[in-house]
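Ticket #4471: structure export looks truncated?
Reporter: QA, pipeline team
Priority: medium

Steps to reproduce: submit the single chain below to the structure queue and open the exported record.
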Amino acid sequence: MSRFRETFATPKPILAMLHLAGDDRAAKLAQAEEEARIMAGEGVDGLVIENYFGDADDVERALERISGLGLATRIGVNVLRDDAQAFVLAARYPVDFIQIDSVAGHLRPEADAPFAAELTVRRAASKALLLGGVRFKYKPVLSGRPEAEDVAIGARRCDALVVTSTKTGEPTDLDKVARFRSATGGTVPLLIGAGLTEANAAEQMAVADGAIVGSWFKRGHRDTGPVEADHVARLMRAIRSVRLAA
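Actual output as written to the record:
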């Protein structure tokens, strides 16, 4: 059994984003706790604490608070623009997984080699799973390699691959998921990284092994809104139906 399957025993796990919105540090922390309680209460399988609106210090504060709440969900981190700090926090707190938006394809060859070497060292020293993106939304493609080669390299660098289309909220291209599956030979789980809704959950989960959800859980389904319990509940009902039908 893969490390991913050991960590997420439930089929088609749903990981929910905590974007750390708020006018100041106290507000960010209070909102993060409220949203974590809502999403865990509705049955998400993991929470990704990310500095989408905050900074690395906000991630640590939220991680310290949320890891002490006793929520029945896995906890992960994504420290944007500072992958090294994500590993530092994963060693300091009870972090089950780390997300890195891009693990292959986004760097020129001369920069990719040291990146890969550093990532190998950090992974070897960490107990946390690594969820990595390839050709991830908003990331440049600078490797000069074909997509399939970038995907195969990315699969060797992490425990699961995260697949998106080109922007936040845009449904993930199912043809792209199929290409990733072919390039990896099914050796790693594939997670939908953007655009999952209750309307497309069955179609998307038919080809993927789980998903990361952010803006769909929020007011107006926009990344700037607060999480709304009804949005979480509706999507999780759809996911439970998918699991029962599998």
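Status: closed, not a bug. The export was complete when the record was re-opened. Leaving a note from the reviewer for reference: The domain at 3-245 is CATH 3.20.20.70 (TIM Barrel).
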